[in-house]
């Protein structure tokens, strides 16, 4: 049945399609400054130990901020779920982060920690080996440590830590198969008995440069805030424009 809109004069207009109750599949991208504000709000709730509210804000950021790098946000959501002991939920978000950025080595590291907690050392060792191959890709193992501080994560991923995690998982597997004793293997090879992982309170945060631009006048930061507004390339003094009108034609004097 067609729907009609009625005017004060009771004149029938064109048929109007019934509005769908479904949520729109795509929203217009928010300005870049708004995206940073949303992330800072989520970080504030996280620092105040309000993890549920922080999760809801990060989820909202994933939905409305299509131009923002989503892999770090997915990592943050997985990190919060891991901190709350929800390992399976955290695993799904770390996998989403990897699907967007397959070179996000810290996500592989956390996936290994998830499977260690689940009692699956073979799966954990596979993720640690993937992490090792990512960080040593195209460089020597002695000089492959990754500093994530410039990306907003205060953590240094060290090759030696990843190698120790691999050896520990192998030792646990050997002990489970009855090939050797885990305690003896760890003592002989000097393997730590706990895996190295990103600390629970460490997440990707808005970088200091972005935070500074968020607090400043938009006109002062327009030269790099290209996702918000048009760039300001140059400004002309007003006296040079006194003889121009509209499209640049000289102004006539009568």
From TrEMBL:
Q: Which SUPFAM superfamilies match?
A: TPR-like
Q: Which PROSITE patterns match?
A: TPR
Q: What is the originating organism of this protein?
A: Discina gigas
InterPro entries, from UniProt? NCF2_NOXA1 (IPR051864), TPR-like_helical_dom_sf (IPR011990), TPR_rpt (IPR019734)
List keywords of the entry alphabetically: TPR repeat
State the protein's name: Neutrophil cytosol factor 2
Q: Where are the TPR repeats?
A: 71-104
**One Pfam family linked to the record:** TPR_8
- Record's superkingdom? Eukaryota
**Has keyword ATP-binding?**
no
């Amino acid at each position: 049945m067609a729907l009609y809109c009625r005017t004060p004069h009771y004149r029938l207009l064109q048929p109007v399609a019934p509005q769908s109750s479904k949520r729109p599949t795509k929203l217009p991208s928010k300005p870049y400054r708004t995206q940073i504000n949303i992330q800072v709000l989520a970080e504030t709730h996280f620092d105040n130990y309000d993890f549920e509210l922080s999760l809801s804000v990060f989820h909202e950021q994933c939905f409305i901020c299509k131009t923002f790098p989503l892999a770090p946000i997915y990592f943050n959501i997985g990190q919060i779920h891991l901190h709350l002991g929800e390992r399976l939920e955290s695993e799904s978000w770390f996998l989403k982060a990897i699907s967007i950025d397959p070179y996000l080595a810290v996500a592989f590291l956390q996936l290994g920690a998830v499977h260690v907690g689940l009692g699956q050392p073979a799966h954990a060792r596979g993720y640690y080996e993937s992490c090792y191959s990512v960080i040593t890709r195209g460089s020597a193992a002695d000089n492959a440590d990754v500093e994530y501080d410039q990306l907003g994560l205060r953590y240094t991923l060290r090759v030696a830590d990843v190698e120790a995690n691999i050896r520990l998982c192998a030792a646990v597997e050997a002990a489970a198969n009855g090939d050797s004793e885990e305690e003896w293997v760890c003592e002989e090879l000097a393997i730590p008995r706990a895996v190295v992982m990103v600390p629970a309170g460490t997440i990707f945060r808005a970088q200091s440069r972005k935070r500074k631009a968020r607090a400043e006048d938009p006109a002062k930061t327009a030269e790099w805030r290209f996702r918000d507004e048009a760039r300001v390339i140059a400004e002309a003094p007003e006296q040079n424009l006194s003889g121009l009108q509209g499209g640049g034609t000289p102004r006539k004097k009568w």
